[in-house]
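[INFO] parsing input record for SAM-dependent methyltransferase
[DEBUG] input buffer:
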Amino acid sequence: MRRGSYPERPWIDRVARALPEGAAVLDLGCGSGHPVAADLLARGFGVTGLDVSEAMLDIARAALPAGCWLQGDMRALDLGRRFHAVIAWDSFFHLTGADQRALIPRIAAHLHPGGWFLFTAGPREGEVWGAVSGGPVFHASLSPAGYAAALEAAGLLPRQFVAEDPQTAGRSIWLARKD
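[DEBUG] output buffer:
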């Protein structure tokens, strides 16, 4: 469904420009690897993708063999290594607010000092149900103040928050950096 649509590109560009050559990047909730992981691999970054869906990972493995594709639940994130960036575009908000709060310190532990965390969330606190391809999809969000507090408590400095960014089809975006 995502091929040809890449509204997150300006944000991925921003993070990519800040990374060292060949940097290690974790695509959290990577799905099929398109478009984010595919773009990062094409730029020469070492991409690890984590997703709960083995079927989506099979697509990523076939199309993008240069990536490292791991099956797992992001809530149990424990890869035993660090990354220069963690990107959770259109994935993090499928967790409950409590699960998001618990995951933020795990993400911080997976970042090198100076590493970046880019993720999408809702513009305000709450839970909603949407639909993708006719099926129900859960979304949850903390308040902007709640995210800022959770990020800061984990040693991540919020650098930017844009609510309902029209350039990304209305997504709300957070960019934070590890101290």
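[INFO] DSSP finds five helices and nine strands in the chain.
[INFO] shutting down worker
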